[in-house]
Amino acid sequence: MTGIIPAEWSPHRAMWVGWPSHEELWEESLTPAQDEVEALVRALAGAGREHVRLLVGKPEALADAQGRFADVAGVEVVAGRFGDIWLRDTGPIFGPGSRRAAAFRFNGWGGKYELAYDDTVATQIGEASGVPLDRHDFILEGGALDHDGEGTILTTRQCVLNPNRNSDWTKTVAEAALAEALAARRVVWLGDGLLNDHTDGHVDNLARFVAPGVVACPIAFGIDDPNAGVYDACAQDLAEAGFGVVRIPSPGRLVDEDGVVIPASHMNFLIANGAVILPTYGNETAVRLAVEVLADLFPDREVIALPSSAILTGGGSFHCISQQEPA
After folding, report:
1. Average pLDDT value over all residues in the chain
2. pLDDT value at residue 189
3. How do residues 204-248 score in pLDDT, each as one tens digit?
4. Cβ distance 252 to 195 under 8 Å?
5. Phi/psi of residue 147, each to 5°?
């Protein structure tokens, strides 16, 4: 057994980040996404906060990544292969002290995006980090869970009980699997995630532990926020489960060039050694308010707001492309 998963705010010995590597996937967004990931990596490595292990998923992208970070201490460029950069979902979940890590089957978020090598990422990260893997024969993505460091896991019914992952799972079966694999003592079930989230409602876009017994979730920004009802239902579920609830303003309504709502979320922040990195999407007022809330929640960390609009065109943000190794 891997052991109770440390909270993200516990010290890290390293932080994995995925590097946008495939022009055929990102097209005109490739360079802007690389620029945003570069800013994230520089913030993580700045002031000696994190040892960043940057996984590059295609040989043709390796030289550019190495060149971009040649001047940055604490960045280790790792040659690998992946379908895309979402290491939170394809990589392993590290246990206490990173002595062992849990690895799961991966099926492209319910068969929607099955890309070559994604099902090998956990093995690659285990080998590169020197951490033995405990393999579990069920489908699970790391972004579907959030951990308080004391054995409580937050997740959503929409994702983890979706028959496109494990067709026979009920709450009882899922809770037993999470207890065995991740030493979960309590699983708290939320409902639906964000509109048009292709992950089927990953919790790291919806609700995040910020301290034991305290969970942050969004509050709608603007009268046309398409997820207002989802946010309020989440807050009510959390309060009924006995948590202290902190509301963080959402980015508001964001749409793509076709007018389709995109799942932008301030909840996809990344808690690093000495910093909290907040993804932003152009709404300066919402960003300012979100930064103020996070600064109150994490007074011992610098809150750094960085653009993530290009990364979001691929379907996620900073938390989705990263995975920490606890110290």
Report:
1. 97
2. 98
3. 999 999 999 999 999 999 999 999 999 999 999 999 999 999 999
4. no
5. -125, 140
Per annotation, catalytic residue among 159, 217, 234, 320: 320
Q: How far apart are CA 214 and CA 289, in angstroms?
A: 19
159 given a catalytic annotation: no
User: Span 71-99, mean pLDDT?
Assistant: 98
The torsion angles phi and psi of 128, rounded to 5 degrees, stand at: -70, -30
